[in-house]
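// run 5 | inverse folding | seed 20
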């Protein structure tokens, strides 16, 4: 039983790491602020959730796993809220998404 839990926990930790690295690559590769923000917010929440799930499986039913679950709940609520706040602040600061900039250029050209 312990071997199955170890394999399952390492699989979730590796999958979570993949999603976090994918979000980091998205920050480097995508063209504008809004696509970068989307690329980091979605995989980051999923990746952190999978990593914490793997750590909970490693810890078993202990006080440590309860703390890890609380950390996950904190991340689950603060991550999307911070992403929304950043996007709203960017729009308020007159930063336009890339798609609307292309549309403005097409409308102004003869």
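// decoded
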């Amino acid at each position: 039983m312990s071997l199955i839990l170890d394999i399952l926990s390492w699989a979730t930790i590796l999958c979570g790491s993949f999603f976090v690295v994918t979000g980091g690559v998205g920050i480097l590769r995508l063209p504008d602020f809004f696509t970068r923000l989307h690329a980091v917010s979605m995989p980051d929440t999923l990746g952190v959730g999978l990593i914490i799930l793997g750590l909970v499986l490693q810890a078993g039913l202990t006080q440590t796993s309860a703390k890890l679950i609380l950390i996950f709940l904190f991340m689950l609520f603060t991550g999307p809220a911070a992403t929304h706040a950043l996007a709203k602040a960017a729009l308020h600061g007159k930063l336009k998404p890339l798609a609307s900039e292309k549309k403005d250029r097409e409308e102004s050209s003869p």
